[in-house]
Amino acid sequence: MEIYISTDVETDGPIPGPNSMLSFGSAAFTANKKLLGTFQANLETLADAKGDPDTMEWWAKHPEAWAACRSNLEAPSAAMIRYVEWIEGLDGRPVFVAYPAGFDFLFVYWYLIRFAGTSPFGFSALDVRSFAMAELGVDYAASSKKHMPKSWFDNLPHVHVALSDALEQGAMFCNMLQQNRKTRS
Question: CB-based burial of residue 178 (10 Å sphere; 0-12 exposed, 13-18 middle, 19+ buried)?
């Protein structure tokens, strides 16, 4: 059975290494939207990294989200090992799910390889917006959230707190997947 691990990251810049992943949250779902568990970690910044000026300007406008990702910090090495153990404790094949996967997976994969030496996801991820593009039969530009059917959304907030946003996008993905499978059956 596949376990869809909806993941959201918060960072202080566009790329791992020069910038740090500040926090990440994951919510593990079955295809029928059963929540199997969650994981979250707020991370210490990388020793040689620094915040990107544009990103830090964005954070200055979101003090509640900044405060949420800067409390209870832990070393990336401890967090990533704990994350691998959490994923391996799930009963199924893990599938990384994100919106956008190109950004979130970049950070998570880099941190997993650097600090845990492995990735339970291999090197692949499922991008929710690409799935929406295929499901809607439209060009990529017309597949953003504002073009998605309301039925794909649960009443969950998007507040730039990693776990909260992972839960929101995971529920949305499961709604999309359920619609897709009903249409195909």
Answer: middle
